[in-house]
Amino acid sequence: MVDVASADWLSAHLGDVRVVDVRDGWEFDGIGHLPNAVSIPFDEFRSAEGDVGMLPGSDVWSELLSNAGISADDDIVAYDDMHGVFAARFLVTALLYGHDPTNLHLLDGDFSAWTREYETTTEASDVPDATYEVSDPSASPLVDFETVEAALDDSETVIVDTRDAAEFEEGHLPGAVNLDWRELVDDETRGLKSRDDLDAILEPAGITPDRRIVLYCNTARRISHTYVVLSHLGYEHVEFYEGSLTEWEARDGALVEG
Description:
Strand order of the largest sheet: 1-5-4-2-3
Distance between the termini: 35 Å
CATH architecture of the largest domain: 3-Layer(aba) Sandwich
Structural class: alpha/beta
Number of domains: 2
Shape: globular
Helix content: 25-40%
CATH topology of the largest domain: Oxidized Rhodanese, domain 1
Order of helices and strands: EHEHEHEHEHEHEHEHEHEH
Radius of gyration: 18 Å
Number of strands: 10
CATH superfamily of the largest domain: Rhodanese-like domain
């Protein structure tokens, strides 16, 4: 499954992986980036006109990664400067277009965390020739409106809203529990909290590895981070509602306030 890689691990494996920076292009060029990193800004792989929900479309994805010198069998480490939430979206997108999840890694922390101990550069990275071939994933976590609607009455399923508490109060799916994705991040280190701390947050909410977990937010960005974290922790039954509240409200799905 998709995992979370430490800065120490990445530093030791920079020559063996493809590093993807999903910050804006001006940040990549002007502020600097990790050695050997390539720039694929978030806006370039996020589209409302894609083939599934907010995905960019397989042709767009293939062209983006080919131009970045990435092949379908490469190990990829992605990062941003927002605790990993945008980078996680990149990794989930790769997963949904058939990339082997064992070759997908989120940098623990982000660009700011990396700069505390390791060097950055403004030099352009060498980009090898590559043709990225999209494929169907061996197993997809995506679920649709009807599946989520049916899950509302399933006592073995936990519907998880990863937005903040104020958004949750304004309206959420019936029976959903609120887990702001930022609760899993340590503000000081900018990386994930310890396993013990994560378990202490997840278990009281009923979010445990033995249960079926269905994630949603507004546009499937924030759930990407939570999906990667739960995958990293070994959760095997995590589902991803790509349409999230954007689709749910458009189709008059039931909402509860308070």
